[in-house]
UniProtKB/TrEMBL annotation:
UniProt record similarity statement: Belongs to the xylose isomerase family.
Superkingdom per UniProt: Bacteria
A GO term from the CC aspect: cytoplasm
Catalytic residues in the record: H100, D103
Originating gene: xylA
Binding site for Mg(2+) 2: E267, H270, D306, D308
Name of the protein: Xylose isomerase
GO molecular function list: magnesium ion binding; xylose isomerase activity
InterPro entries: Xyl_isomerase-like_sf, Xylose_isom_bac, Xylose_isomerase
UniProtKB keywords: Carbohydrate metabolism, Cytoplasm, Isomerase, Magnesium, Metal-binding, Xylose metabolism
Cofactor binding annotation: Binds 2 magnesium ions per subunit.
Length: 434
């Protein structure tokens, strides 16, 4: 036991009228929504990096947090950090957590030293998991922070960095498999370029595709039953990211024949940086059968970078879960809080309260989405708008050619008149539920 979360009791559901800042108002894990427990719909996960590894810095300021495990350069401190993390999982009743390798172990003098630290902390995690409900949603490799990754990982111009990347991902996949993780994520934090003056696009994309094919091959070799996920992210840190958004990633996966093996891990903050809404990214992935998991956070709409704040906008969250529910749910994926405290939120209580509020926001959004699905208003509006395509004439047109279509139009049989899209009416409809 650490003293970091001392005097903070396990969080319980107390209903919407409670004034307790450390109680759930809307998240009741056992409440049944559309025939499934709320906990099983949402599949919440804590992001180890933001909650425990991040020290409170930003591009213009250094560390503001003082934690018992700082500095994070020794194995004994890594274990103190793990103790605190699992205490928080217990307090929140979290079903899952997620990690990068660099979040959980100190860097060694070389690859072998880092690997020894990594394997030791994985075994330490497994010991803690024996008596707890919390499981691993996914693992991933940090291939963006260290200076070796400055020009990318799988897309690096140096083949030695490609090799180091492959060895790193292998160890992280092995650990994820050993821990019973349900997914493995690849986030190309520096898979992009700053200038075309020193970049061979074709070579870099081919190497990235080959690397991901090796990941899939290794998944099958070791018998990992989880889902392989890639995470779209635009602009940051590279000016031109190869994994810009959901559509870009889907095109990439299809080009290299991986669309049947890999799905997407989508983040709200990344959607905003790409100029999209989160529900847009979810809907695009769902339409292609590639929706895997989500990172739930939000960006500051006045900032042009990834602020990773905890969610607090029910309408946005509701529309996201609406598309998730219509797609059949998250499968092996979940709702990972890839979010961090503000630099001025220093206390352990702040970290608990941030997750409590975020879980409540997601619960409210889920229930609103379920209510809209049960009501059927949006589905009815879609059916009405596209009803013309259900006619025999429309289907025959799709199977004909330009000459046949031209003949019908020039004869005067077809003279379309615009119909209202009723956007404001539909927006008003959504507001009835949120």
């Amino acid at each position: 036991m650490t003293q970091f979360f001392a005097d903070i009791a396990p969080i319980t559901y107390q209903g919407p009228d409670t004034a307790n800042a450390l109680a759930f108002r809307h998240y009741n894990p056992n409440e049944v929504v559309l025939g499934k427990r709320m906990e099983d719909h949402l599949r919440f996960a804590v992001a180890y990096w933001h909650s425990f590894a991040w020290e409170g810095g930003d591009p213009f300021g250094a560390q503001t947090f003082e934690r018992p495990w700082h500095p994070q350069d020794q194995m004994d401190r890594a274990k103190i950090k793990a103790d605190a993390a699992f205490e928080m999982f217990d307090i929140l009743g979290q079903p899952y957590f997620c990690w990068h390798d660099a979040d959980i172990r100190p860097e060694g003098a070389d690859f072998a030293g880092s690997l020894r630290n990594f394997e030791e902390i994985i075994d330490y995690f497994l010991g803690k998991m024996e008596s707890r409900k919390t499981r691993l949603l996914w693992g991933t490799a940090n291939m963006f922070s260290h200076r070796r990754w400055m020009s990318g990982a799988s897309t690096n111009p140096d083949p030695d960095v490609f090799a180091y990347s492959a060895a790193t991902v292998k160890t992280c996949m092995d650990a994820t498999h050993k821990m019973g993780g349900e997914n493995y994520v690849l986030w190309g934090g520096r898979e992009g370029y700053e200038t075309l003056l020193n970049t061979d696009l074709t070579r870099e994309l081919d190497h990235m595709g080959r690397f991901l094919s090796m990941v899939v091959d290794y998944k099958h070799k070791i018998g990992f039953k989880g889902t392989i996920l890639v995470e779209p992210k635009p602009q940051e840190p590279s000016k031109h990211q190869y994994d810009f958004d959901a559509a870009t990633c889907i095109g990439f996966l299809r080009k290299y024949g991986l669309e049947g093996e890999v799905k997407l891990n989508l983040e709200q903050g990344h959607a905003i940086l790409a100029g999209h809404s989160f529900e847009h990214e979810v809907a695009v992935a769902a339409a292609e059968g590639m929706l895997g998991s989500i990172d739930m956070n939000r960006n500051d709409y006045q900032s042009g970078w990834d602020t990773d704040q905890f969610p607090n906008n029910v309408p946005e969250v509701a529309l996201t879960y609406y598309h998730i529910l219509r797609a059949g749910g998250l499968g092996t994926g979940g709702t990972n809080f890839d979010a961090k405290l503000r630099r001025q939120s220093l206390d352990a209580k702040d970290l608990i309260a941030a997750h409590v509020g975020a879980m409540d926001i997601c619960a409210r959004g889920l229930k609103a989405a379920a209510a809209m699905i049960e009501d059927g208003g949006l589905d009815a509006a879609l059916r009405d708008r596209y009803a013309g395509w259900d006619s025999n004439d429309a289907q025959e047109m799709l199977n004909s050619d330009f000459d046949s279509i031209f003949a019908n139009v020039v004869s005067g049989k077809i003279n379309p008149q615009p119909r209202s899209g009723r956007q404001e009416i539909l927006e008003n409809y959504v507001n009835r539920f949120v």
